[in-house]
Description:
The structure is a single chain. The chain has 324 residues and is mainly α. 77% of the residues lie in helices and 0% in strands. The protein has helices at residues 7-36, 42-64, 74-98, 101-108, 111-122, 129-149, 157-180, 186-200, 205-214, 217-242, 247-253, 256-269, 275-305, 315-318. Helix 6 packs antiparallel against helix 13 (275-305). The longest helix has 31 residues, at 275-305. The model is unreliable at 1-8 and 296-324 (pLDDT under 50).
Amino acid sequence: MTFPPDAGRSRQWPAVAAAGITVTLWASAFVSIRSAGAAYSPGALALGRLLAGALVLGAISLVRRVGWPPRAAWPGIACSGVLWFGLYMVVLNWGEREVDAGTAAMVVNIGPLLVALLGARLLGEGLPRPLLAGMAVSFAGAVVVGVSMSGSGDASVRGVLLCVLAAVSYAGGVVSQKPALRHAGALQVTTFGCLVGAVACLPFAGTLVTEAARAPLSATLNMVYLGLFPTALAFTTWAFALARTTASRMGATTYVVPALVVLMSWLALDEVPGPLTLAGGALCLAGVGISRRGSRSARSTVVAARPAAPVALDPPERGREPSI
Length: 324
């Protein structure tokens, strides 16, 4: 079976588009969290966000008759639900109250590096040089953005440790989710992962009810927005893309988020970025571009090595997942 020259790209664009939706919505979450976090405590905000997300995901799953995930998918769903949907959201909300935004951004952005290391160790994923180089450049950009955004520089040890815990739980959640996607669809994994996270956060239910009664409408609407879009939609598109690439490459893609946060804060909050912040954002984008260029080069090498005559598609190639 032969492929036209652009066949590989045509199979990749849905995953690329899904990843783009994810990082854009996750960047928008930072703007909404600033409003909702003023009225809701970390645990209550996480629970409210997860309940809103689980409600819409559950409704969509019922309409589409998605059904119960296979037994083989449940270990990954449960781990990602507890670590990423539950623990990550709570400790990140808490950590950002203890440190300034710049410090939080720098510490949390060790997450993609941990994803790459855990993916290589636990999932058998490779660590190609272009990917590592791109992640190094992007991490340097995230540090520059963080330094430029730091105010007084006040950061408690507890706050830094909470941000480190957020990065570790994020990495553990991503690596746990990848195997689950071999047995269940993106909507299934996201829906039940969100439900697991909501159950894990139920101890904050009383606080959520109390704070919702006195919170301004704008804060509550921002919490609902966080549940519907950066959680329900963005985590589903993330799972869709993750099923079609490696965890380490998806982790590198999230380095687009700091650059988008700078742009959105400029447009939505009238926070004009300085030259250092813009330079850091540019480095983040450049690093993601370097990691992507490496994947394109690898695909080009494979295509060039194929015989010019039409050949049969072997079974292993039929199941190969495109990388983004």
